[in-house]
UniProtKB/TrEMBL annotation:
It holds the Pfam family MTS. It comes from the Bacteria. GO terms for biological process: methylation. NCBIfam families: hemK_rel_arch. Its EC number is 2.1.1.297. Belongs to the eukaryotic/archaeal PrmC-related family. This is Release factor glutamine methyltransferase. Keywords: Methyltransferase, S-adenosyl-L-methionine, Transferase. The keyword Cell cycle does not apply. CDD domains: AdoMet_MTases.
Amino acid sequence: MMLFRPPGVYRPQADTSLLTRALLRSLSRAGAPPGARVLELGTGTGAVALAAARAGCQVVAVDASSQAVLAARVNARMRGLPVRVLRGDMFAPVAGEQFDVIVANPPYVAGEIDPESVRGRARAWEAGPDGRVLLDRICAQAPRHLSPSGTLLVVHSALNGVAATLVGLRRAGMRASVVARHREPFGPVMRRRADVLRARGLLVDGQRHEDLVVVRADRMEEEAGDERDQWAA
Ligand SMILES: C[S@@+](CC[C@H](N)C(=O)[O-])C[C@H]1O[C@@H](n2cnc3c(N)ncnc32)[C@H](O)[C@@H]1O
């Protein structure tokens, strides 16, 4: 069945499928909680959230765009899948809630436009000077929305700095690593922006591809807590 996608809503792309595959792999691992509570940040058409619901998870999907919220609700209803779709800024609509898995394919294209002020289709990709405005918020805030053994899966371009994501997550008390990587030719947005990014040293001459990465981070506050207790004793 085709996805309903009103104008301005992100068309699922290579980053969407890379993240979906990583999520399904993670859900099928031994020890993954059956009927896991899954949160998707920035759901767009809901493609990733639908895959989680199909796998038997209890799914909440959030997006800042009213058109995306409409699309995700319609797509879930057309398939008879129970996805709770909420409109709002990142974690705000789920304040105080915890999840076993959080997934995100956030905006991550570097540019001069302030992502907080952008509206329309560009909201799917505009992510500030180094493309990390939303990524850094996710790294910092995910731990408090994860259950004690919860997992974050976030996809972005290696151009945003994989080390920055790993360091940000480790600083937030998570065990983090790259679990998937895929080389993709630039899409239309990156082709238009390549000259600007090259001038700022973010691309090498002639580069027309980017590596997409999925970073997985597991909460380890229990272990950290145990260690702290040991030292305190
Ligand atoms: C790259 S698209 C990904 C869409 C979908 N998850 C997919 O993979 O096909 C990023 C999504 O994040 C949403 N978004 C942007 N800023 C947001 C924010 N502050 N809070 C929640 N969603 C946001 C956009 O509207 C867009 O739907």
